[in-house]
Design goal:
alpha/beta; Rossmann fold; 3-stranded antiparallel sheet; 9 helices; binds 2'-deoxycytidine-5'-monophosphate
Length: 227
């Protein structure tokens, strides 16, 4: 049996990290973890509970009331995030959450809370985790690190199509300004900013198909684990 490894996929917002991570996990029989879902679920909790996230005491107290885990859903065939036993996988995709999540993910207490759980999930290896700081902070020793990018127009178009299906009132401008704002905050925050790890492989998928991108990632995996 092949040894199990940790695969990290970081990169800019909406460049297809989760699509690739899910496909890879399925092909390899690995567990897929969406680390962004954890920051989104924390954001949902703060918004619902009117937590003043500029007050470190309130943030600490709120985090104590949060339990996050993933549960596999047979119907959607993916693991979905549970916030205090409530499935919030779909509500956290709303633009209201996307507008606040980068501010909340920049809080060091929030990151400590999420990173500790992510590291526990990787103990047995055999996982693909996507996010912003997975190859740099969460699993700096991961065996395969991919850093994804795509040009901004392509990313906006992809995300717009996805969000428009659920919310026809959304405009291209809403999506573009949200992506630009998140990219800015995520890459300029003090704690674990979005960066390509030195040993990460850059994957620009602006002009390649999903199949080509998956084949490329599988090639990288095989190089590390042998065919
Ligand atoms: O991957 P996503 O768009 O669902 O992530 C939502 C936000 O969470 C993203 O804008 C930044 C933050 N995030 C983070 O700071 N670190 C991670 N490892 C994953 C996400």
């Amino acid at each position: 049996m092949k040894k199990k490894i940790i695969i990290t996929i970081d990169g800019w917002s909406s460049c297809g990290k989760s699509t690739l991570a899910k496909q890879l996990a399925k092909m390899l029989g690995y567990v897929y973890i969406d680390s962004g879902a954890m920051y989104r679920a924390i954001t949902l909790f703060f918004l619902r509970n009117h937590t003043d996230w500029t007050d470190p005491k309130e943030v600490k107290a709120a985090l104590k009331q949060i339990e996050l885990h993933f549960e596999y859903n047979e119907k959607s065939q993916q693991s979905e995030i549970m916030l205090n036993d409530e499935n919030v996988e779909y509500v956290i995709r709303d633009l209201v959450i996307a507008e606040k999540v980068s501010d909340i993910a920049a809080i060091s207490e929030v990151r400590k809370f999420a990173v500790a759980q992510q590291q526990r999930m990787g103990k047995k290896k055999g996982i693909v985790m996507d996010g912003r700081d997975i190859g740099t902070t969460v699993f700096p020793d991961a065996e395969l690190k991919i850093f994804m990018t795509a040009d901004i127009a392509t990313r906006v178009e992809r995300r717009f199509k996805e969000m428009f299906e659920k919310n026809p009132n959304i405009t291209i401008e809403d999506v573009k300004s949200n992506l630009e704002m998140r990219d800015y905050i995520d890459s300029n925050r003090e704690v674990s900013p979005l960066r390509k790890a030195e040993d990460a492989i850059l994957l620009d998928n602006t002009n390649i198909t999903m199949k080509e991108q998956l084949d490329y990632a599988l090639k990288l995996y095989n190089e590390r684990c042998g065919k």
